[in-house]
Automatic annotation (TrEMBL):
<feature type="binding site">
    <location>
        <position position="339"/>
    </location>
    <ligand>
        <name>substrate</name>
    </ligand>
</feature>
<keyword id="KW-0663">Pyridoxal phosphate</keyword>
<feature type="modified residue" description="N6-(pyridoxal phosphate)lysine">
    <location>
        <position position="196"/>
    </location>
</feature>
<feature type="domain" description="Aminotransferase class V">
    <location>
        <begin position="35"/>
        <end position="309"/>
    </location>
</feature>
<comment type="similarity">
    <text>Belongs to the class-V pyridoxal-phosphate-dependent aminotransferase family.</text>
</comment>
<dbReference type="InterPro" id="IPR015422">
    <property type="entry name" value="PyrdxlP-dep_Trfase_small"/>
</dbReference>
<dbReference type="InterPro" id="IPR020578">
    <property type="entry name" value="Aminotrans_V_PyrdxlP_BS"/>
</dbReference>
<dbReference type="GO" id="GO:0008453">
    <property type="term" value="F:alanine-glyoxylate transaminase activity"/>
</dbReference>
<keyword id="KW-0670">Pyruvate</keyword>
<dbReference type="InterPro" id="IPR024169">
    <property type="entry name" value="SP_NH2Trfase/AEP_transaminase"/>
</dbReference>
<dbReference type="InterPro" id="IPR015421">
    <property type="entry name" value="PyrdxlP-dep_Trfase_major"/>
</dbReference>
<protein>
    <submittedName>
        <fullName>Serine-pyruvate aminotransferase/archaeal aspartate aminotransferase</fullName>
    </submittedName>
</protein>
<dbReference type="InterPro" id="IPR015424">
    <property type="entry name" value="PyrdxlP-dep_Trfase"/>
</dbReference>
<dbReference type="InterPro" id="IPR000192">
    <property type="entry name" value="Aminotrans_V_dom"/>
</dbReference>
<dbReference type="GO" id="GO:0004760">
    <property type="term" value="F:L-serine-pyruvate transaminase activity"/>
</dbReference>
<keyword id="KW-0032">Aminotransferase</keyword>
<dbReference type="Pfam" id="PF00266">
    <property type="entry name" value="Aminotran_5"/>
</dbReference>
Length: 384
């Protein structure tokens, strides 16, 4: 395979991701007044229905103006009342961060963790729940993006359901790239963002909300703190033809096309699996160490920084010499790892081939002796 390095920076980060021309065209469409134009209410509704299809759910879906974090915060703000006992199941930065939102809205948070370099241990969680299960709800993350770990969402959720614990799941970086069966698995709130596997620009979050979750939101004893995070404001937007605030119409035009593209892409889950697997094989065979010990994500790969280098050096060389942008991480992973996103529009052979070829050059240049040619090994392992 011979491919030229890109002439403009190619973003291979775990979000934001590449935005297709079709989505960019949709973003630039003429707008209407979305609060007044009844056609826009139908368009918004159709877009929500497309998201339902993507999430395999009949639960109501809302699309909100704000990045993924707004979805997390809105779920916590709307469901948690002061003094509620809530469980934060976590094995990384986003999972733990959920606990901060739970606390912010008055939740009495208990944390469960079974180690940071592995997927959440369902057996250990079940043992914990056997003794402690007096929780109104639990939060967890499907793909812990900074760590590159995908948690067993179905099994975690079914453990929670045994005790009638409501679930709020952050699937921001997995929706579109990993299997998700919202209804079959009985997930109460599943939330995502526009800039990961959906490959639309950042700025939109969406949530699916079960009947049980709605009941809790609408039957609270205390009012919801905040307006922007108050999901109850959205309960009858369609009947009333009223949005709590003017929707970001252009972003929704782009987002809608992005969801359609995913729905048409029948082998996307297979492709994410195949590419992720080949990326990991090539990095490991080259002598690099992956951060996760198990639970490897199909949308992002997190690699321990080789000794003697820094993220900044690798990042700068990748960008200045090959026009490829890779991700670092923050919090306790800052300058410990680098990350390659292979999600959504970036999950194609040619893009990973070039990314690995660039990385191969950069690491050799820095004196790291790779045991195989990363890009060649990647191609050879695509079908294994
Ligand atoms: C990207 C992401 C979010 C949104 O966070 P930002 O850093 O603001 O983009 C939330 N949860 C997960 C798991 C994510 O990957």
């Amino acid at each position: 395979m011979y491919l030229k390095f890109p002439s403009v920076p190619m973003i291979m980060t775990p979000g934001p991701t590449y935005v297709s021309e079709e989505v960019r065209d949709a973003l630039s469409q003429k707008i209407t007044n979305p609060d007044l134009d009844l056609n826009f209410y139908e368009y918004y509704k159709k877009t929500c229905e497309k998201v339902q299809q993507l999430l395999n759910t009949e639960n109501e879906v809302l699309i909100l103006s704000g990045e993924g974090i707004l979805g997390l915060e809105a779920a916590c703000a709307s469901l948690v009342e002061p003094g509620d006992k809530v469980l934060c199941i976590e094995n990384g930065i986003f999972g733990k961060g959920f606990g901060d939102f739970l606390k912010m809205y008055g939740g009495e948070v208990e944390y469960f963790t079974s180690g940071y370099r592995k997927a959440i241990d369902v057996k250990a969680l079940e043992d914990f729940l056997e003794k402690n299960h007096d929780f109104k709800l639990a939060t967890f993350v499907h793909c812990e993006t900074p760590s590159g770990i995908t948690n067993p969402i179905k099994q975690i959720n079914s453990s929670l359901k045994k005790y009638g614990i409501l679930s709020i799941v952050d699937a921001v970086s997995s929706i579109g790239g990993e299997e998700i069966e919202t209804d079959k698995w009985d997930i109460d709130i599943l939330l995502g963002g526009s800039q990961k596997c959906l490959s639309a620009p950042p700025g939109i979050t969406f949530l699916s909300i079960s009947q049980k979750a709605w009941k809790i939101i609408l039957d609270r004893k205390t009012p919801i703190t905040g307006f922007y995070v108050n999901l109850a404001n959205w309960k009858s937007w369609y009947e009333d033809k009223w949005f709590p605030y003017t929707p970001p119409i252009s972003d929704i035009f782009g987002f809608s096309v992005a969801v359609e593209r995913l729905l048409k892409d029948n082998d996307r889950l297979e492709r994410h699996k195949k590419i992720a697997n080949a990326v990991r094989k090539s990095l490991i065979s080259g002598g690099l160490e992956l951060y996760p010990k198990d639970g490897f994500s199909n949308t992002v790969t997190t690699v321990v920084l080789p000794k003697g280098t820094s993220f900044k050096v690798i990042y700068n060389k990748m960008l200045s010499e090959h026009n490829i942008m890779i991700g670092g991480a923050f919090d306790f992973l800052k300058n410990q790892v680098f990350r390659i996103g292979h999600m959504g529009e970036n999950c194609y052979e040619d893009k990973l081939y070039l990314t690995l070829k660039g990385l191969d050059n950069v690491l050799r240049d820095l004196g790291f002796e790779l045991k195989v040619k990363l890009h060649k090994y990647f191609i050879e392992n695509l079908d294994s």
